[in-house]
Design brief:
Layout: E1 2-6, H1 10-23, E2 26-31, H2 34-42, E3 48-51, H3 57-66, E4 69-72, H4 73-94
């Protein structure tokens, strides 16, 4: 999947880059300016955009109308951590099932 990365600082872009690399996603571009990201979205330069924080409503509508998936990095990480904690709790309460 070709992804675009959008964050307002280089440090945050680094975290998004690692997130995509870990999943094997191809990085089509890195953006710090929303208007540049939107121009490339209109050209369909990528299939998904990984964002650090939520985008303005108009940008979200544009991505959806173009069929571009929006992946919210912080929300995905928090969901993963919550799932892991719940899974661990279930294993502790009910055993692993392999004993």
């Amino acid at each position: 999947m070709k992804t675009a990365l959008y964050a307002e600082s280089p440090e945050l872009l680094g975290e998004l880059r690692e997130y995509c690399d870990h999943r094997g996603w191809q990085i089509a571009g890195e953006y710090g300016q929303l208007n540049t990201l939107m121009l490339d979205a209109a050209k369909r330069a990528f299939d998904a955009v990984v964002v650090w924080r939520w985008l303005p409503f108009q940008a979200l509508q544009t991505f959806r109308s173009l069929g571009i998936e929006i992946i919210h990095y912080r929300e995905a990480i928090q969901s993963h951590a919550l799932f892991a904690a719940i899974s661990d709790d279930i294993r502790l309460k009910f055993g692993r099932g392999d004993e």
